[in-house]
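Sequence in, structure out.
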Amino acid sequence: AAMLRLAAGLIASLLLAPLAIWRRRRVPIVLQMTTTQCGAACLSMVLRFHGRAASLTEVAEAMDLGRNGASALSIAQCGRTFGLQVRAFTAEPAHLGQVALPAILHWNFSHFVVLESCHKDGSAVIVDPASGRRPVSAAEFDRSFTGVVLALTPGATFQRAGRARGTAAWQRQVERLIIGSGAWRTGLKALAATLAVQLLALVVPLLTGALVDQVLPQRQIALIPLLAAGVAVIVVTQMIAGFARRLALIRLQADVDAGLMRGFLEHLLTLPYRFFQQRTSGDLLMRLSSNTMMRELLTTQTIAAMMDGILVLAFLAVLLLQAPAFALVTLGIGLAQVLLLVASTGRMHDLAQRHLATQTETQAYLVEALAGINVVKATGAEDLVLQRWGGLHQQALAVTIDKQRLAALFDTLLSGLQVATPLVLLLIGAQQVLNGTLSLGMMLALNALAAGFLAPLAALVSSGQQLQSMGAHLNRMSDVLEAVPEAQGDATPQLTGEIELRDVS
């Protein structure tokens, strides 16, 4: 059990690691879950920037938010409880260059944002807890900034903590799911079947090299039937292992889906009524649907990533043993793919959070409108509902387009690398064949091994891109998992007895 718990903790840490891969000097985005949480979200962002990974729920509980949200005073008081030195003052936009950043600004007389940077021309970059990071022009900044500034810097009692409470909540959820439900047994079966399928891929390059260098030059026709039988065995074995893998994954997904959804809903139903007053039904439904995305992450994506990692190391080791120079060239091309992922991480993570937030707001409004359709019809508010939904839908569509454009740029660059890679390796191999340092069969085998190294590496990069979107779902689900359940009283007694009706007409 201890080993399983350690493995579960390691898996949870690996799943959550991509959430921390953005630039250190960028303010980590924390989006508000309700309209009253803008102040708490801003304070959470500043705390995370300075190294204290305080979750939104943790800050909101410490701030004791009411129905009217936070004030500048409550933000300052809460910041001091976390060990921050807080200075509250009024300032003109031109003087904000002298303020220690990031700072919290009062915005449009009813909102708070985080000022990340300001420029000499009056423009600035803010992190809005309602929509994410965005640049603002000098005119918009002057129009929206009310003059109230909260400058927050670490004090003597400030303590850095690298993991938010939501991370611990998710790790407990993963441990309970993997250990308690027995899903780890099914996962091991899927892992073993996947490993068998993938390691068979190592045989093909070596078989190609032997065929070209030994069988064909010596015209060993008698070996052809033996090689054909070997190929047939490999194909049949791979088909059987692949089918077993699919069956194990189907079972694993069912186990994880049932455990994840049940655990999430069970915790949700234990939360106090105040929690539901601050969130719409549509918002909670979207959080429930995020469990499906997390199921995919915990099953298919996790196993695929582990297998891809093993394959990358295996193919790289064989390449280094066979031709170190060729292996270094292949490794350099692989690192270029990884650098593409790292370069897009921060922007993609921001867009993923904004995309989920706008989609949630749109769907939540639609659910609420349909649930109250009797009121809509009675008051003749159909046009107002359509207009409001249309505005929300346009915002969501704009974020979706931005996200798809970035994904298209990333995929185009990655595809270009994938097209150029075999051509570059073929030219290098051909030169070595002409120089007499490689045989033709070895060149073909090395190219196949290089392709076997780069293909799972590309899959790992693709998984890393998908993990950035998963982080947004995890943040929203953690808002539920972190919430403290209400005190449980005695269980509802089971009533027994009989009801007898007499002389009833």
